[in-house]
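During the reporting period the student researcher (J.K.) took over the structure-prediction task from the postdoctoral fellow and processed the backlog of single-chain submissions. One of the processed entries is reproduced below for the supervisory committee.
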Amino acid sequence: MINPSVKNETGRLRTLVLGIPDDFGGTPALDEVYDPKSKEHVLAGTYPTQEAVTREMQQLEEVFRQYDINVLRPDNLPGVNQIFARDIAFVIDDTFVVPNIIENRHREATGINRLIGQINPQHVVKAGAGARIEGGDVMPWNEVIFVGYSEDADFNKYKVSRTNKEGVAFLTKQFPNRQVHAFELNKSDDDAKNNALHLDCCFQPIGRNQAILYRGGFKHQHDVDFLYTYFGAENIIEIDQEEMYNMYSNIFSISPEVIVSCHSFTRLNNELAKRGFTVEKVDYEEIAKMEGLLRCSTMPIIRD
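J.K. obtained the following C-alpha cells:
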C-alpha cells in the first residue's frame, strides 16, 4: 500500500510520480493544442520531438535516483501526452485528491488508475462535479494552501483557465484545518507571455520561508502585496516576464536545501546558490515549449 503524505512544497521527497514521455503523440494538430506556448511552437515547426523529451526526462529521473527517491510512473497510454503528471492528481496531508481536469486531458488521467488502487480508499477523494482543479494551481504550504484560479468570466472565456471558484470552495471544505488563499491569475489563450497557465507558472515557495514570484501573473496587486507580507521582501526572488515565459518559477524542490532547475536559468541558479541552495541542473528547454517544466512533470506522493 502507498500512504500519501505531503505537508508542503519542499519537505524531503521520498516518493513521487514522474510523468512518462514514452509515446507522447508527437506534434499535435493546431486545433488539438490547449495552451498558447504549445500553439506557438506548433506554428513555428519547433515543437519538441520524441527523442528530445525522452532524453530530458531521463536526466530528471537520474537526479531523483541519486537522491534515493522512489520514482513511480503512470501506465503508458499510446499517443497520449503524459509528461505533466502534476495536474491530474495531487496530495495534501494524507489525502490523494483526484480533481476534475480539462476535457482534453481526461484520457491522460486514466494512466494513474493502478496507482490509485494502491492507496487506501479512505485517503482518496474525488472533487465534486462542478469543482474544476488542476494540480499546477494547488500548493500546500504548512498551515495554508495557495491556489490559483479564475472567476466565472475568465473561466468561461479562456481554455487556459483550469481552476474555478467551485474548486477553491472544494479545497476549503475538504481541508478545514488549513487556510486557503486563492489568487486570480492573468490568462491568455493566445499570448504565452501574458498567460499564467497555473499558479506554478508565476509563483512557487522554496526552502523554508522563501519564494519565486512573477507579479505580472497575478490579476490583483493586493495578492502580490499579501505574498510579499507573508514571505517578506528579502525572501522573494522576483522574476521578469521573459523569465516567467521561460518557466523560471517552475523549478522543483527535492528538500528545503536542494532544488532541481534548468541549466539555462543562469540568473536564478546563481541567486539560489547565493542563498545557500544546492542546485541540480538538467536540460529541460524542449519540454518547456509545451508550457510546463519541472514542477509540472512531478506529483509528490510522500514528503517528510
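The committee noted the following: The chain has one domain: 13-303.
J.K. will present the remaining backlog at the next meeting.
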